[in-house]
């Protein structure tokens, strides 16, 4: 998934549970989530699941 929106600093602190929840669910089923984001550029989520 990728967008061309605001982006955010992934090294920063975020209070929401959304990204944490996605990561935990992916790990629970043996998957991996990688987030790449830059302020003013956008965000990309790479989700991998071995089957």
The quaternary organization reads as single chain
Helix and strand content put the structural class at alpha+beta
Q: What does the largest sheet look like?
A: 2 strands, antiparallel
The ordered string of helix (H) and strand (E) elements is HEE
The helicity comes to: 10-25%
Mean pLDDT: 83
> How do the strands line up in the largest sheet?
1-2
Percent in strands = 25-35%
Report the C-alpha radius of gyration, rounded.
Answer: 12 Å
| Low-pLDDT stretches | none
Q: What is the end-to-end distance?
A: 20 Å
Keywords for this structure?
single chain; 51 residues; alpha+beta; two-stranded antiparallel ribbon; 1 helix; 22% helix; 31% strand
Structure description:
Keywords: Kinase, Transferase. It comes from Siphonobacter aquaeclarae. InterPro entries: HATPase_C_sf. This is Histidine kinase-, DNA gyrase B-, and HSP90-like ATPase. GO terms for molecular function: kinase activity. The protein is α+β, with helices and mostly antiparallel strands. It contains one helix and two strands; from the N terminus they run αββ. The protein has a two-stranded antiparallel ribbon with strand order 1-2. A hairpin with a 3-residue loop joins strand 1 (31-38) and strand 2. The model has no long low-confidence stretch (mean pLDDT 83).
